[in-house]
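Researcher: Re-running this chain for the archive, since the previous output was lost when a drive failed. Same request as before.
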Amino acid sequence: MILSSLEESFPVISAWVPHALFPSRADPQIAQIMLSSIAGSIMTVVSIVFAILLMTLTLASMQFSPRILVSFVRDRVTQWTLGVFLGTFLYCMAALPAARSLPEPFAPVATVTGALVLALTSVVGLIFFIHHISRAVNVNHIVDRIARETEDVIDEIMPHKRGFGLRLEDMAFAPDDTEFPVLNEQPGYICFVDTARLLKLAKAYGLRIRVLRSIGHFVPPGVPLYTVSRRSRLTVDRGAELRSAFDIGPMRTLQQDVEFGILQIVDIALRAISPAVNDPSTAINCVDQLTRILIRWAGRAPPPALLSDPPHVVRVIMPWIDFDHLLDTAFEQIRHYSVSDVAVSLRLLRALDDLAATIDDERMRERLVLRGQRIVAGCATCVDASDVKRLEGRLVGLEARAPATTMDIAVGIQGS
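Model: Regenerated structure tokens:
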């Protein structure tokens, strides 16, 4: 070990260690005992940490959702804690040969002192790890973390406020007579699409590329992944370059997939309102966090579906999830399974009202009102008349945010 070698070559290093901390400096057995004791204790602690981690993963998978396990595995505190423990163990094992009795007795005082410091650091890390895990398994903390990560994805793919900038999706272009499909080779979910690389390659090769599957969709092998406008310009090497812009994996991630973050929260809400759990408070918290995500989405300009280079020359057509789809993903399943739960249904109506209060688009408000009417209609046959009046009272406030023409359309649809 470097430190023990330096200590043996320069004994002045050991002189810096206080005698009160290490009184015996001539007996290497003391150093061996201390290093071996620290190494053995650390391995015991590592076993405990792994047991706690496995218990946490099992609890999170069974009680909340197996989709959230990825976040636990990526947790930086857990990684740093295990890194400190294993580093301390390796440090002690590497320092043990330096403490020897033959040919000349040598006790690496400074090296053992470093092991003591690492042992103290490991104790502090264990205490912090236990505190961190106790917070990590709290459902409110889990839902809030998922919501924050989902908002970060929205900020990345939709950096501009709604109403600013050029709306590329409004550009018109003459469609090609024939588009040639390019088949997928690797089965899995579309985790990430490098649109900048696709645009660059499309311009370089003189192609128009239409991506057929949205982020988060599963693509089996042999199914068209995208189409190109000119088949003659697409060689084998160019096709491989284009496919390299797609990151396809065995599971969905939050790289660009906003819907995946919403699905994780919805899974937790559905388990909470199931008869086996019956925890409406958790479901209400999930609805609140879903509202937060949808408000962030509704306040941003949608990602461009048409990418052009030079301007007004469409090169890439990219499908993105829209607000209606996100709204259905967030609330539809919860609405269906909470028809007999007044508290959750009331919170769904409040969520729709909060969304309508932050949206200026009248068409989006109209769709929110229609979903509010579906909530009340679904609960009408499952709850008491007094509870129905409470739901209708909250629906009235939601309907007041829509124009009169919208309400006429909504009443006509409901009557039919």
